[in-house]
Design brief:
2 domains, three-stranded parallel sheet, 5 strands
Length: 188
């Protein structure tokens, strides 16, 4: 498949996954055109990062203090709220809208390329981020409890008014969410 734009979370594991995916999908080198962005980063759980959800924030702060060999009072919690994650998602979509408006200003709709075909954008993000995105912007579907690693989610984003990339609609269907492909190691 050919992509018009390729974006990846700036976290290494997502960028690395993107590189592997593109090398398997096509002999063409995409490494130079992958745009890494912190707007696609996984949700930041702050002191609770990598810890069980069953522990309290206070217990998490104690655990972090032990790991860092510092006093609990010195632990700084930088967790994101869901509103902050949503703001990042809106910033990403609005940025895409601006880019499409600049790149395709002669098109009748910003989600379309100048020849009338759909613009294809590959975004490599994280499960929690995708789940949050689906809940925020694709409200007509039942969002799965877990987004699978390396799952494919096909989302259509449209900007009905080219002059305002902050106004957009997102849509998908349940059969286009959490698609997983399995490759038999014995197949070539």
């Amino acid at each position: 498949m050919e992509w018009n734009y390729i974006y990846s979370s700036d976290l290494y594991r997502a960028y690395h996954t993107c590189c592997i995916l593109l090398s398997k999908a096509n002999n063409k080198s995409y490494h130079d055109i992958i745009c890494q962005t912190n707007l696609l980063r996984e949700l930041n759980f702050g002191v609770r990062e990598s810890l069980s959800r069953s522990i309290t924030k206070k217990q998490a702060m104690i655990e972090v203090a032990k790991r860092m060999n510092i006093a609990v009072s010195e632990v700084i919690d930088i967790a994101e709220s869901y509103n902050e994650v949503t703001a990042r998602q809106i910033a990403f979509i609005t940025g895409l809208g601006h880019k499409f408006n600049i790149d395709h200003s002669s098109s009748s709709r910003s989600s379309m390329s100048t020849d009338g075909s759909i613009t294809k954008v590959l975004c490599i993000a994280h499960g929690g981020y995708i789940k949050n995105f689906l809940r925020n912007f694709c409200k007509t579907i039942i969002v799965p409890d877990k987004i699978q690693n390396c799952g494919v989610n096909i989302i259509t984003i449209e900007w009905p008014d080219q002059s305002d990339p902050t106004v957009f609609t997102c849509s998908t269907s349940e059969d286009q969410v959490n698609i997983t492909y399995y490759h038999d190691q014995n197949e070539s």
